[in-house]
Amino acid sequence: MRIVNLTEESKSELLDILQKRSPASYTEYENTVNDIISNVRENGDKALFEYTEKFDKCVITKDTIKVTREEIDEAYKKLDPEFIEVMKKSAANIREFHEKQKRESWFTTKPDGSILGQRVLPVEISGVYVPGGKAAYPSSVLMNVVPAKVAGVERIVMVTPPQKDGSLNAGTLVAADIAGVTEVYKVGGAQAIAAMAFGTESIPKVDKITGPGNIFVALAKKACFGHVSIDSIAGPSEILVIADETANPKWVAADLLSQAEHDEMASAILVTTSEEIAKQVSEEIDKFVELLERKEIIQKSLDNYGYAFVAESMDAAIEAANAIASEHCEIITANPFEVMTKVKNAGALFLGHYSSEPLGDYFAGPNHILPTNQTARFFSPLSVDDFVKKTSIIAYSEEGLRAVYKDVERFAKEEGLTAHANSITVRFES
């Protein structure tokens, strides 16, 4: 792992490098994605079946595109019962955490009888995209679906690409059943996003699409935004560790590699006030890489986006962390809660020696669908709020309107909107 002194120049160079990983940078695929979306909008299921045969080498029909109860029951038989119980515990933790995010509708009344308020309702149908093949993650199913269920969404549609024989990952199906997915369809890629955004003969149009995917999925979500709501346009996984001399180098190295194994574009960054810690972490990483199964992916990730920055002070380290705005940020210092108060930009914070990042990925309860590519400066983790809509309520009495109608008239006339003003005036002409 390369060790670099943290300076304004080195920080700026890193930000430029990381930003190039954004899905927004891959414009050469946009025409292909737009063509797929147009085809699905025009031809519906027919386009889905053709793309599934072309890209997934699987023949599906209107009779086989939807997963049956029998297929779900069969998936349970393929999994270790102990793992099923672990998934149920994880789902319970996720549910408990997200229950605390629920908001209630509210109303307030004034002495003149006027009523103001906000009505909070869940969206009617939400859709979740789940990658297939080697990138099948049951944990992402739980993280996408449980908040929607807590929000009160009644119909949850899941799409995921099939294997050549038409089967789906057993863990994905069981996780969907545990989380409360209503229906599952065997389709993936940009065509699956288009199907949920616009609807086909088999797949209903949804109100919200969440879930990770490859660059084609990300660009399809971007292109369909506006016709449907989306969670975000996710980029590659990221971890940043802020560490001082109290950190355990072996543990830090292990945590950094937990994200580097996701893919070759994942970033793993250490920012430390100790040059000795930087050297020791780098040495431990080299040892681990030789032992881990995904070492080729890990090594390419580290070669491209792996850095150990040595900062002159903790304040400088924190400033760098805020600029990078990492998806995951571990704080392994003597006083992690003090440092936390100064870290403003991060998708999720992991505090102390025993709060390893995979806790957030699988089990602790907070959502692991987090802002990437520096968007933690203005985006938040997936939450119950993503699956509700808020409607303002205004109910004025005659007395209430009479007290303010001249002010409303004045405002409307100042903007040159006389019909607005007239709408108020006619009520008091007599």
From TrEMBL:
Keywords: Amino-acid biosynthesis, Histidine biosynthesis, Metal-binding, NAD, Oxidoreductase, Zinc. It catalyses: L-histidinol + 2 NAD(+) + H2O = L-histidine + 2 NADH + 3 H(+). The active site is at 327 (proton acceptor), 328 (proton acceptor). Pathway: Amino-acid biosynthesis; L-histidine biosynthesis; L-histidine from 5-phospho-alpha-D-ribose 1-diphosphate: step 9/9. Zn(2+) binds at residues 259, 262, 361, 420. CDD domains: Histidinol_dh. Binds 1 zinc ion per subunit. GO terms for cellular component: cytosol. Belongs to the histidinol dehydrogenase family. This is Histidinol dehydrogenase. It comes from Butyrivibrio fibrisolvens DSM 3071.
